[in-house]
Design goal:
Elements: H1 13-26, H2 34-43, E1 47-53, E2 56-68, E3 72-82, H3 91-105, E4 110-113, H4 120-128
Parallel strand pairs: 3-4
Antiparallel strand pairs: 1-2, 2-3
Length: 145
């Protein structure tokens, strides 16, 4: 199944291959069929953007636009990760700025993401970028790994 970016253009397979090791820094439990999982997420409305330097992926964001009753239109970020080798160099800030531009362009009322309670460094970054903790996120695992 072909993957497309936010403009509908096809994502070159080599970018997906290059993004996988960076994405696994955040999500090491992604299935072996990384391309298949990303294709399924994109088929369900997800979009993948990568920040690059030449042929090297510095970071990425996986996002989608959702309508709900309590916020209206929201750009939700599934994953936002900068390569460990490139952190604190402005990559995350650039991705978050790009996501904010997308949210505004698509008429979103909110830009939102969830961050694991163990990710204190990421939380400091989000606070610096003007984000706040707006609610608790509860979940119930339905399938055991």
């Amino acid at each position: 199944m072909p993957l497309t970016d936010d403009s509908g253009a096809l994502i070159a397979p080599e970018w997906l291959i290059a993004a996988e090791p960076v994405h696994r820094q955040l999500r090491p439990s992604l299935p072996a069929d990384y391309a298949g999982r990303i294709a399924a997420v994109c088929t369900a409305g997800g979009r993948l953007v990568v920040a690059t330097d030449g042929e090297r992926v510095l970071g990425l964001a996986l996002w989608r636009v959702i309508e709900n009753t309590y916020e209206g239109r929201r750009l939700y970020v599934d994953d936002l990760v900068t390569s460990a080798a490139d952190r604190s160099q402005g990559v995350g800030r650039a991705l978050l700025a790009w996501l904010t531009e997308q949210a505004n362009a698509q008429g979103c009322d909110v830009l939102a993401l969830d961050s694991g309670v163990q990710r204190a460094g990421a939380h400091r970054f989000y606070f610096r970028e003007g984000m706040s903790i707006a609610s608790y996120s509860f979940k119930k695992n339905l399938r055991m790994a």
